[in-house]
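Data availability excerpt. The first of two example chains:
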Amino acid sequence: MVSDRSPDQAAVDLELLRLLAKQGRRVPYPVSISALALMMMSWGRVPHWISVAWLMCAYGVLALRRWLLVRLPEMHHRRVDQRVRWAVGLSLLNGLVFSAAMAMWPWLSEYQRMVQTILVMGLCAGAVATTAGYGPVFLSFLVPVAVSNALAWMLTSDSSQLPWMDLLLGGLILAFAAILAGLARDTYRVFAESVQIRMQQLRSNQQLRLALTRAEQAMQAKTRFLASASHDLRQPMHTLTLFGAALSKRPLPEDSACIVAQMNRALQSLSSQMDALLDISKLDAQVVPVNNQVFALAPWLGRLVQELRPAAERKRLSLRLDCPEQACIETDPVLLDRVLRNLIDNAIKYTTEGEVAVEVSGGGDLWRLAVRDTGPGIPEQEQARIFEEFYQLGNPERDRSKGLGLGLSIVSRLVDLMELHLALRSAPGQGSSFSLSIPAAEFAHAARSGDAPTGPALPPLRVLVVDEEEPVRLAMRSLLESHGCEVLCAGTIREGLLQCLGARPDLALVDYRLGSGYDGIAAVRSLRTAMPGLPALLISGDTAPERLREAHEAGLTLLHKPLTEEQLIGAIQAALADRRREHRGGADLHQGTVSAL
């Protein structure tokens, strides 16, 4: 049953009962020793049966208190206030027993009376702590003990001494009792406040946990929705991209070729925005490796600036590079490329006139690489927020040409991943400067950076395409056949295995989502069981971090839809190169074994 008291008071009462139960196990030991001392002190003067009877009563009450107090907190079928009244009754019974010790007063010497007073009043002082100062429990013990002791001094004065001394002593006992009562009141107030604060903290923690659970559920729902929406959007985009690439390779009239080129540019723009979302997913999944290399900065930046210069020229901006020839750094060039592309692209997007400059300065242990523009600048109060996802300044209409607001968020995460320091200096009307501090390296150890090698054309390949959507299979067939490949298409893994009975493929392109309870990873395992060592690539429109982790743990390359022709061909070349390296490594190992024999 529950108490009719307020919830806060009921909580305080329950905590009080727990404290009394804890003290109920400890207090009987010192109190029983004190009772035994009182009895032994009176043994030679008081009739033995009185001393023994009083001691038995004291021990019986102590045993009853111990037995009942430790059970009170667990008596949930009783009201809380009823259990508190039982604790008060036990304290009163204990107080009456110790006040009955005054019955031995007439037989005691003055010294013994003083020792008895010290003992019983000491028990009263200790009760302040053992009862948490709770008034009814504490006073039910204090009042009978203190009053009986004071009256014993006042009413049994020795006529040979000054009467006022005994009266004064009785008054001092009552005054001490009053002080103890005040101290108990303050102790209980502190105790009650501490319990209420703890209860408030508990309620606050529960509310925070509930809010956190709801936020996590909302985030999971958003992640599931985005993953599903991303997959559903990427499927037709992937098909369109492949068909567009295949169509661009066919002889077309000039006006039709122009339409195809415009269509492919629109698809690339949409694909780049989807890739920004994919970058966030990869970083959240923690599957982006950092591969540091030593390379010369000037030629590397020269190529990057050259690629981005047309975008600046379309806005009539100057894109300038200032980099010392001896600048050489050690970092991941691929991740640094992504960072600088985002910074330069942002600078071009938001600068209407003037220039965008890429400047390298410093030397020694660090090179400082800065991207500076003459744009509108960023207010100080907004400089922290621009690194948040989907947050953009000066784009309330969400102009697609200015991106999704993910570029700087990706930059921030990549910089943390590469363990570099990114600094921002900006003011309204004075442009912005983003600078990176990158560890320097010796120029002699830098990799020679000429023009990036172009990949060779695909050799004649037999490629197995497993995708449950027929338009994707047809688009993939059209594109790969334009590169001289023989393409086997299958909608399920069973169909794919049947296709391979007559001729083993050189490579498998497998969609992640397949019917019949298969996913792409399981499909690749089935294919490799039948054809050990088969190179395979996973293709998916699902950008959830879990998919990235699963593919990474399975040792498979995961390509995300929509795929451009260059991405697909580059991934195929990389998979074939890895396979050749594995064969060479196996051959070298075999040759070494033969030589050893």
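And the second chain:
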Amino acid sequence: MTITPVPPHESRFSSPLDIRYGQDPYLDAWILHFMTENNIEYTIDPAKNASPEQLRFMVSLDQDQIYVPCTDEMLTSLLDKRLEPPLLRQYNERWERIVRLIEECRADDYTKKRVLALCEHKYRQALTHPTLIPSRLMKRLNTIFLTQSGQDDPSRERKRLLNRRAFAFAQSLEFKNLLYACPKEIMACSTIPDMRFELDSLELKRLFFLSCWAEIWEENGALPGQADLDRVILRQNADFEPLRRMLDPHRQAGMKILYLPDVSGGFLFDLLIVRTLMRIGHRVIVALKEGFYFDSPTFWDAEEDPILGSVLAGAFFLEDNRAGKNELLRVIRENPLVVVSDGTRERLNLHRVSVTFSRAWKEADLIIAKGELNHRRLLLTSHQFTRDILSFRRDREGVFHLEIKRKTPGIRKFAEADIKAKAEEIIQSLRAAKLSGKNVMFYSAIIGSIPGQTQKAISIVNAFIAFLRTRLTGTLIINPAEHFEQGMDADDLMFMWERVQRSGLIDVWRFQSHSDIEKSFELMGQPVPPAWAGKDATFSTGCTKEMHIALSIQAKQPELQIIGPEPEKFFRRREYGVGKFCDAAISCE
């Protein structure tokens, strides 16, 4: 057998936005190699990585387009496999950080030497074949350290110390003077609510500055005074007016804001920002790390740190990392401050974030991302995102920056109220039908559960429903395929249909059978292709979820008639894929 040599890779991308599958088989193979080397390829490891549909909750992606969680500059070096000085510096910084971590840990000398040697093998491998994103190298080295040393959070005591120092300053008279001193300038406002918002905006502006002032919580740091604050304000590279307009309750009341903090210590001031946002009338979801990532606050820190526990009093901690849309919206609706885990132990990596985090991003109106690392990941990339992003940080020279990256033009967010209104419109049509003496039938069918067959599935359903309507003239038949709206994903649709389904107005719930499908092809004058032979609603995880709903309704309304495959045949399926119309595979567990 002769193996055709793979052509040497040459940089053929003018932008990361050009990277996509389907252009060249050799290029596809190289991209897949790069993605798998970084362990961020969904098709190789779907249990750990976000599906393309889940990624599209957060990143604006075309079909077959690739998203890589790093800056454009870093990606160019990695794709060309060149160990350029910036990339080498990033690798070396990770190596020095893990060496310090190993040296300072409480393990015995033998364990330290073993862990250090193992990490060195991984580090040298990265230098020899520079395709590994530095943050992924750090995650790999951290995992080795944590598993081999038996520690779960070596920074726990340090984070508690940083929070303690920040909390002490936040309780001091000096802080209150800095934060609450009346402005010297006269505010131009005509009403008391206007004045209240002006004062809230001023307080937010000061808190943004102070939350980036690491000297407050770092060792031997000098606490800032009024002159220091004034000097920083003069040196700022920030325009607060766009943020002011976004937060103004007169323009957009009750926004949902996803807040991404940076490090412990500063997190205490982040929470003061969050409380001010809540006072203005917005709801906030704070996303913390799932486990140890140096000084970053984790979801579990409040259990170990009394100070953090006290300042987070009243917050709702959503522990489910795979919360559904209904559950997440209910929690946000009932709690103005929700804390979630991003599901990772690394710098922000949208390939690895939890389902709950992805859905929180999708439901948010604004993302506030603090710190240099979040800035690099979100703003120093050509990729656009599905939500407006506010990035703020203080650079190494002490200059404060605040920047806004607007969401992709044309992205439509289906707000909860929009979806409820669409559901209510359908419910009203059901009521009208019932009042006119008709029965109501809901038809659940495969729509996207066979990859690449969505349009065919819609044709099959439409043909069969048209046939049923000629036979059941006294019945209003609800065909979900007739109510699809461009931009709605499976999360939106399932949320909408569940409201309709639980209205109590359905008399007959029919699930698509294999004979229904065969009849549809007969009506269309086509043979049944192999992909559709023997298929029925049990092959759809969306229908499986709907069978659970149907049975729960029937338990309360015994007169509801369920027609189709036996319920037991549905329950081999897992929950429908995140944001997907297609199937999740049958579980073998």
